[in-house]
Every structure is written in C-alpha cells, then in structure tokens.
User: Fold these one by one.
Assistant:
Number 1:
Amino acid sequence: MKKIFLIIIVLVSHFISGNAQNNIEKDHFILNGKIDGELTDSLVFYYENIHGMHVLNSKVLNKNGYFTFEGQIIGSQPQMVMIMLKEKGDKAIMGSNPNRINFLLEADQMTFTATVGAFDKAVIKGSKSQTEMDELKRLKEKIRKESGVRNKEKESEIDFAFFEEHPDSYVTALHLLSYLSKLSPERLNYYYARLSKKVKQSSFGKRLDIGIKKLQAGVPGGTAADFSATDLHGNSISLSDFEGKYILLDFWATWCIPCRKSAPHLLETYNKYHGNGLEIICIGDNDRQPDQWIAAIKKDGTGAMHHVLRGADINKELKGEFNDKDISGKYGIKGLPTKILIDPNGKIIGRYGSDGEDDNNLDEILAKIFK
C-alpha cells in the first residue's frame, strides 16, 4: 500500500512539474537576430514581461551583428514590442529613427534580420500575427507602387477586407484601434462584435472595447457624464454643481495651437452669455505640466472661467485600462480643441471643434438659446 501511495505521489509530482515546465515554455520567447551594416555599441529591446513590467533590455552586439534576446511574456497573445540601435549620444527613442521598428512578438522562437538604416524593411519570422501584419503592409505598398502615390481610401479597403476575413486575428483588433477616430461607433461595434472571444480578451481587444465606449460617450442626445475635479484655485467642483444651467465644456491644452488661438473668442463668448446663465468649464490636457497650464491661463486672460485638469494617468493609458477620473475619457475626446454643450437637464445638445461640428454652429445655437 505504501509503495502504491509513493508511486501516486511521484506521478502527481511529475504531472505538476510537467505542467509548470509547459507553462514556462508557453510563455517563453527567444529572439535570434542579425544586424548588417556599420554597427553602434548596442541594441535596445523593449517589451512587457509575464509580470506586467515594462523591460528595457540592452545588449552589446558582437562584431558580426548577431544577438539573442529571451524572456517571458503572457503567452496567449502577441504584444507590440520595440527594437532599436542605441545611437551615440543616446538618441531618443521617440521621433524618427531609421534604426527602430515596432513589431509583434509571440511566446515562441523568432528571428529578426535587418540592415542599419533600414529597420522598416526588417525580416521577422516566427510570429503568425507579424506575418499577417507584413502581408497587409505588402498589399498597401503594392497599391502605392502601382499608382505612384498613397491612396488612403484603397488602403482602408484592404484593412476592411482583412477585418471581415480575419475575426480571429489579433491584428484585426490592433488595426481597428487606428480607426477609432475615423469610423462611426456603429461601424466599430460591427467589427468588434465579430471578433473571437480570445481576441476580445486580449490587450488589443480590451483597448478597442474601451475606445469604442469612449467614442459613444459625449455624443449629442446622450446624458452628460458627471465628474469631479479640483479647479485652478484648489476648490472641488463637479458637473452636477451647475445643474439647471447651460454648460460648455472646453477641452484644450497649452501645446494645442488652435486651442490657444480660440481663447479670445471663448472669453468673448463667456462675457456675452455668462450673465444669462452660461457656465464654461475648461478642461486642460496638462496633467504632467500643471505649471504650464497655470501660466497659459494667466497669459490668455481666461481665469474668470472654471479651469480643471482632465485627470489623465499615463500608466493606465499604456495598459489600456479605464480611468474613471479621466474627464476626456468620459466624453470620448479624440482631438483638441473640442467643445461640448450641455442643456440645463444634463443632456448633450452639441459637440464642436476638431471632434465635432464647426465652431460657427456653436455660436449660432448659443445666439438662439440666449436671444
């Protein structure tokens, strides 16, 4: 009996050990590569590991340009990663760089081959999703060569055909993210509904779901989402504080040139209608530069209006997580400046600027309301 019990323990231990090994292998990636051309000191590789931590790995290249990166990622889905040559003087990762490329990494054995100065033509193998991405790119490049110019309409048709034919592809969800500001919520919902369960549950699918919900927020005819924030003077204000009044939300940023140019007209609008019951709440996209936000308000002379910051959280944005404090997210803001007009009952009656109708339409409706 003891002998049988011992055999069972050994078998169970072996089963558990085997499963653990399989999980490690499932989540493990190996990226072997070669860079041709005049090499710099090292290669930089950026990805998110199995624990959700962003890893920036740097490796010195040997004289032949060979390298290997390996680690663990969440193995059930591909993720977008970045690889680049580290330039002398630590050339910034952001901006134009011919020695940088983003691609889809999967928990598998992959290869990467590129030439200095032409990383956009890198050959990447071992990822089904990246192969699909490359095929889309090839079809679009074919159109450009045939016409001699970029035809965005035909390129979009290629994407739409891919979405229809590949509802089980992570690339479909990833590419749909780039259409959040170009397609109607109805069209986006159509494509999203067709996605397979595994794609919907991926990081790309979750970000797409959040993005569509944001687009549906702040649409004329809907109820304005309440929010609370600390204003320029340190006071807590909420949208509901102004119930019974017409409210104009002005989404702007100090770095947005059209926003700054429209400040005099916004102030004129405030002075013209505030006495009749119009409240203007300016929502600045400067959570990381509050000093610039305060200085711009002072320079533009708009301090008489209510001013709050949007409540952005860059860490949540990178992870595609919903941020309940983000006012711009509640209203589906995709471009600046955007103005949203709310009636005394809390209903949205207009959306204006880069994310809606022309500002002239706003002037007309305000003139009718306060005639």
Number 2:
Amino acid sequence: MRAICINGSARDNGSTAHLVDQAIAGLRDGGVNEVSRYCLGKAHIAYCRGCKACYQPGGQCVQHDDMDTIMADLLAADIVLIASPSYWGDVTGQLKVFFDRNTPYCNTNPNHPLVPAGKVGLAIALRAGSSEGENQHIIASIAHYYGHLGITPVGSLSVTEVDCLDDLMAKPEAIEAAYALGRGVGA
C-alpha cells in the first residue's frame, strides 16, 4: 500500500507537521510500506490562472511546478492524508492553492483524467481556539476536495487549543489519536 501525506501548513516543523508524522508512524505500523510526505509551505506551487487549458482534451495544466510531483504521488497512492491548521477559520492559503490547482483532475472538468478508483482519504484540522466549528469546516473542505477527485473520506481528527508545538505536546491524547488515525486505515 502507498500513502501520500500533505501538510497544508506554512511550516514543516510545527504542530500540524507533528500530527502528520504521528499519522505516518501509524500508517507504517499498519502496513503501509511507501509514504510520500509534502509540506505545502516548502513547495513551489503557482496560483491557478483560471485559463481553463485543462478543460481541453487531455486535461493538462499549462504550469509545471511541484504540483507535477505531488499529483504523480497522489495518483499512485491508495491513501491520501491532508492536514491543515486553521487560518482565519479556514484552510491555509497554501492548501487552497493546492486545491485550485487540482482542476485538471476535478470531476467537474469535462476532460479530466480519471483518478484511479478506490482511494481513501484522511483529514486533520487543528486550531488555537476551543471551538470545534472551524475545524469541522476545514475537515468539510478537505472532504469536499476528496469528493471531486473520487476519494472516499474514511477518518478525520480535530484538535483544538493548540497554538504552538508546546501546546500540542501537552496533549498526548491528540498525538495518540493521530497515530491511531493512520494505523486504523493502514491496517
């Protein structure tokens, strides 16, 4: 089995990254033998131009950047994990740009290449405040993305009251839940 894990954060060493790494440990312990991990804050992904060139026969984007590598791994994966901290009650800008650049693969694109069937998706959301509403919105946004690519959402994790990595480290139950999320789908 193969998995791709996408950290939608601007940072590759914060709370979101730590939860992604815990989920990866669970995936590996659950039998996933190949895992690709990306941090969108380190990726070079240009904004969608809205040119609709991907709507032409063949459905390809005219831009070539890190999306080419990430999408090749996503298309080959059996499991997709996307994680995002809350930025103003929503997914990060980096993750939104990633979603926008998936237009060539979206089921609303009349010439989209088929995303291989049978993929499952996981979502992780975390925020500094205590309300679950923002995280549920983020999880719903990730599920919406999955729906347009034919990926079946099978699990999610919401963690609140985490403003920095120290806050997360004081929540061992959240760290264990991220591991269990990966382990459960990898088994």
